[in-house]
Amino acid sequence: MSFVAGQKGEATWFGQPRGLTVLFLTNMWEQFSYYGMRALLVYYMKMELLIEQRISSFIYGTYTAFAYFTPIFGGIIADRWLGKRRAVILGGSIMAAGHFMMTFEPLFYVALGTIALGNGFFLPSLPSQINDLYSAEDPRRPWAYNIYYVGINIGGFLAPLVCGTLGEFYGWHYGFGAAGIGMGIGLAIYVFGGRYLPAEDRRVLPEGTAGGGGFDKPTVMLLGALLLAVTVFRSAYEQVGNTVALWADSGVDRVAGAFEIPMTWFQSLNPMLVIMITPFLLAHWRRQALAGTERTPLRKMSLGALIVGAAYVMLAIATVIQGDGRASWLWLVGFFAIFTFGELYILPNGLGVFARLAPQRLGASTVASWFLAIFTGSLAGGLVGSFWSVLPTGLYFLVLAVICAVAALFLRMLDAPARQVFASRFGHEGHTVPVQDTNKEQ
C-alpha cells in the first residue's frame, strides 16, 4: 500500500518499516473486536435487553466516550512508568476479558467498563509507536497514518460480517465471543512481532519534566483548538454506528432480489470503502506532493468535514423521496461512499498532526489527547443521537450536515496557525516532503 520505497539499507515490507506491518495487524484485530462488539451493541440493547431508543443511544454514546477518555490516563501511565509495549499487552488483555464478559448478560455494564479501561492502555500506546519507526525527515511518515488507518478498517470491515452475522443469526453472545477471540489474535501478533519494533527508552520521566522539551504555547493552542473542532465534527460522525444504524433497520428496504441484507452488514461498507479508496487517495496525494500542490493537513481536514456533511444531505434527500415508505438500500451505499471519502481526509490526518507534533518521549500522552476529541465527540454524539426520536428524519440528517459544516469552517480557520507551527518545527507547512526512492527492497 505504500508508494515510497524504504530508505537505503532498510529492511522493509511493502516499502515500509517491518514494524508498521506488526502495528497494522495488531490494530486490525483489535479493531475487529471493538467494531464487532459495537456493531451489535445498539441492536442488543434494543432487542435483547429491551432498552428504549433514547436511553440506548445515550448508553452507546457514553460507552464510546469513556472508551476514548481512559486513554488520557493510559497514555500518561505508559509514558511515565509502564512503557508503550507493556501498556499495549496489559490493555489488550483487559479488553479481551471485557469482550468475553459481554457473553454473560448480568455482566453487561461491568463488561463495558472493562473494555473501556483496557482501551485506555492499548489505544494511545500502539499508534504512538509509528513515529519511532521513521526519521524526522522520512517522507513516508505522514502517509504511514493513512496506511495504519487501513488496518483499523480491515478489522472494521470483517467485524460486522463475522460478529454481526453470528449475533443476528445464532445469538448475540456468540458475536461478542468472536470479538474476544479477535482481540486475542491481535495480542499474539504484537508479542511475536515485537522484534521488528524499535527499542524503547524505558527511563522514567522525572516529576515536572515534559520530555524532549515539552510543548510550546502555539502548539498547545493549536492542538486545543483542533480538539474542539474535531469534537464538533465527531458529534455528527459518530451517528454512523448509532442513529444511521437505526435508520438502516427502520427506514431502509434491505431486500436485494430474494435476499434480505442483514442490518449489521451495512456497518462493513465504511471500512471496506476505506480499504478500497486509500491506495488511490495516497497516490493522488503523492502526485500533488511531487507537483507542489498538495493541501496542508488542516485544509484536508476541512474538506473532509464538508464531504461528510454532503453525505448526510444525501440521507435527508433519501428520506424526502421515500415518503411514507422505505428508501432503497442503494441510498445507504451511496451515503457510505461519500462519507468514507470525507473521513479519509480528516481523521488519519488529525491523528498524524498530533503524533508529528508530540515532544520526544511523550508520544503516547500526545496521541492520547487526540482521543480526547473522540471522548468529547462521542458524548456530544450521544446527546445529538437522542434527538433522533424527536425530530423528523430528514431534518435530523440536515442538522448533522450543518454540524459538519461548522466543523469545516473551524478547521479552515486553523490552517494559518497550523502552518506557522509546522514551519517553526520542521521548516515546512505540514505538507509531505517528497524525496527520490532510494531502495527497492521489499
UniProtKB/TrEMBL annotation:
Cellular component terms (Gene Ontology): plasma membrane
A Pfam family of this chain: PTR2
Membrane topology label: Multi-pass membrane protein
Gene3D superfamilies, A to Z: MFS general substrate transporter like domains
GO MF, one example: peptide transmembrane transporter activity
A GO biological process held by the record: oligopeptide transport
Compartments reported by the entry: Cell membrane; Membrane
Chief localization: membrane
Keywords, sorted A to Z: Cell membrane, Membrane, Peptide transport, Protein transport, Transmembrane, Transmembrane helix, Transport
Family listed: Belongs to the major facilitator superfamily. Proton-dependent oligopeptide transporter (POT/PTR) (TC 2.A.17) family.
Protein's recorded name: Peptide ABC transporter
Gene source species: Croceicoccus naphthovorans
